[in-house]
Write a structure and sequence with these properties.
The complex is a heterodimer of chains A (419) and B (100).
Chain A: H1 9-16, E1 38-41, H2 45-58, E2 63-66, E3 82-83, H3 90-104, H4 106-110, E4 121-125, H5 128-143, E5 149-152, H6 153-159, E6 175-179, E7 183-184, H7 187-200, E8 204-206, E9 211-217, E10 220-226, E11 229-232, E12 235-238, H8 244-251, E13 258-267, E14 277-280, E15 285-289, E16 295-301, H9 313-326, E17 335-345, E18 352-355, E19 361-365, H10 375-388, H11 402-405, H12 412-415
Parallel strand pairs in A: 1-2, 1-12, 2-8, 4-14, 12-19
Antiparallel strand pairs in A: 3-7, 4-6, 5-6, 9-10, 10-11, 13-16, 13-17, 14-15, 15-16, 18-19
Helix pairs in contact in A: 2-7, 2-10, 3-10
Chain B: E1 3-6, E2 10-13, E3 18-22, H1 36-43, E4 52-58, E5 66-72, E6 78-83, H2 90-97
The chains are: A alpha/beta (419), B alpha+beta (100).
């Protein structure tokens, strides 16, 4: 495995001398080997992070990541890039906070600029009951040692003055919760950075390779059938958001997951105007401004099941209505594009990370509308689970069995709108 | 946007409807003998197919009545509409049995 060039100001200058035509590839495109120690199904951020931490933390480098499309072409490249850890229950708070801590050192860790920007994340409340709900969440977070604070109306005005503070608004702003360590990251760079880091440690990243079935004997998984032939492995991790139910069906079990479209949009680019992330559950929108100047905004899910990677215009219309309600200043902005991704929706808005009824087969799914923020933590705990054949304390509550044991982790308050 | 053929009101805009999820999930009868796994299957596990999905809808802002749709989750085509309590059209289930 040739060592990768370290990205730095020096490598930038050196490559400038040859007109940037001689940069080495960030990862190889090898032919699949007939057998690996571990196969990861799904080459999104979570799958690539899993492969990276398997190689780095657990010394398991004989790993293949199988991606049916191309790296970062699924939900990793379709989300609204928000990162936060303000979840209510202890189990979720610890999991997402672990991810947030990994985010804070990720660019250095991967030697790849993921443009993580902790610009703060403002959750608006529009009524006293909503404010009490936020207060409950803030206090729970503080008990878990996670930064979060309540802002009254005056403090919200000072923090984000371009919001509509008119008492005549349809939903007047009442207050907010703020997580200052929250923010945004560049989603593509996260996939590319993990892909490059995993590849450098010996992981084979195999694109255009769709899994069509599992090889199972005596209740144990032994490999996968793919569009590029049979590949064997004793341990297989599936991280294929949107299509988790289909893969579970191939392996012979059912999941409590439904696939729904989640839509997002960007505006034309404008000069810096919004220096934080704003979300509102009451009017149903969340928005930030990208470094290119586009407003990036997202909606709630479409109500019906779909695999079509598109949704109904009604959702987009509601999303823009909500945006203009919060920010009348944006009413003349043009929309550059809208799109949809297919998300796994779980009944309790919490993920499933762990073992399955098939020995050696692990699933990481059900992140619903907010998986991007968890990417590093999700990969980290999933790598631990696969390497040790048991969950890490951070993900031991997120089993598939919680649905038969009645131990649901209801995060609709933290996850239903906000991502 | 879906144009949904309500069995009572005719074709109406999707915004008048709400989707009630997978159809034909029967509540178990002998609940005192049901295992935890069977309860979980009834309450939470879903088919979530890529292809024909049998689902319940309610004409929320119209006649407020429930009905079933067979709809493709790949291209959103509505393949059949039928009333509550009726089985899905045989033409579709035959197709499905053949792997369609």
């Amino acid at each position: 495995m040739p060592a990768k060039t370290r990205y730095s100001i020096l490598s930038l200058v050196r490559n400038a001398l040859s007109y940037h035509e001689n940069w080495e590839e960030a990862w190889r495109s090898p032919e699949p080997k007939p057998e690996y120690d571990v196969i990861i199904v799904g080459g999104g951020g979570h799958g690539l992070a899993t492969a990276y931490y398997l190689a780095k933390e657990h010394g398991i480098a004989n790993v293949a990541v199988l991606e049916k499309g191309w790296i970062g072409g699924g939900n990793t490249g379709r989300n609204t890039t928000v990162v936060r850890s303000n979840y209510l229950w202890d189990q979720s708070a610890h999991l997402y906070e672990h991810a947030l801590k990994l985010w804070e050192g990720l660019s250095q860790e991967l030697n790849f600029n993921v443009m993580f920007s902790q610009r703060g994340l403002l959750n608006l409340a529009h009524s006293p009951p909503e404010m009490r709900g936020l207060a409950r969440r803030v206090y729970a977070l503080n008990l878990n040692g996670i930064d979060s604070e309540l802002l009254d109306l005056g403090q919200v005005k000072a923090f984000c003055p371009i919001l509509n503070f008119s008492p005549k608004a349809r939903y007047p702003i009442y207050g907010a919760a703020l997580q200052r360590r929250g923010g945004v990251a560049r989603h593509d760079a996260v996939a590319w950075g993990y892909a490059r880091g995993a590849d450098a440690r010996g992981v084979d990243i195999i694109q255009n390779c769709e899994v069509t079935g599992f090889l199972i004997s005596n209740g144990r998984v032994t490999g996968v059938e793919t569009s590029r032939g049979t590949i064997r492995a004793g341990r297989i991790g599936v991280v294929a958001a949107g299509h988790s139910s289909l893969l579970a069906k191939m392996a012979g079990f059912r999941l409590p997951i439904q696939s729904h479209p989640l839509q997002a949009a960007v505006s034309e680019p404008v000069k810096p105007v919004l220096d934080t992330v704003v979300m509102s559950g009451a009017v149903h929108v969340y928005v930030s401004q990208s470094d290119k100047g586009e407003l990036v905004l997202g909606a709630g899910i479409d109500g019906y099941n779909s695999y079509a990677q598109r949704g109904s215009p009604k959702i987009v219309e509601d999303m823009f209505g909500a945006l203009v309600e919060l920010f009348p200043i944006f009413s003349r902005l043009k929309v550059l594009r809208t799109w949809g991704g297919i998300v796994d929706v779980c009944p309790d808005a919490s993920p499933i990370i762990g073992k399955t009824p098939v020995e050696g087969l692990f699933f990481n799914c059900g992140w619903g509308t907010g998986g991007f923020k968890a990417t590093p933590g999700s990969g980290w705990v999933f790598a631990y689970t696969i390497a040790n054949d048991r969950p890490h304390p951070l993900n031991e509550a997120f089993t598939l069995e919680r649905f038969s044991g009645g131990r649901l982790i209801d995060e609709h308050g933290a996850a239903a709108v906000a991502h | 946007m879906l144009l949904i053929p309500c069995p009572w009101c005719g074709p109406r805009d999707e915004s008048e409807f709400a989707c009630g999820g997978e159809a034909h999930i029967a509540r178990p009868t002998e609940t005192d003998r049901l295992s935890d796994a069977d309860w979980a299957d009834y309450l939470f596990m879903r088919t979530n197919p890529k292809g024909v999905h049998y689902e319940r809808w309610v004409h929320r802002l119209g006649c407020r009545r429930w009905f079933n749709l067979a709809r493709s989750t790949v291209n959103h085509d509505i393949l059949a509409v039928y009333r509550m309590g009726e089985p899905p059209p045989a033409s579709l289930t035959d197709l499905k049995a053949r792997g369609g």
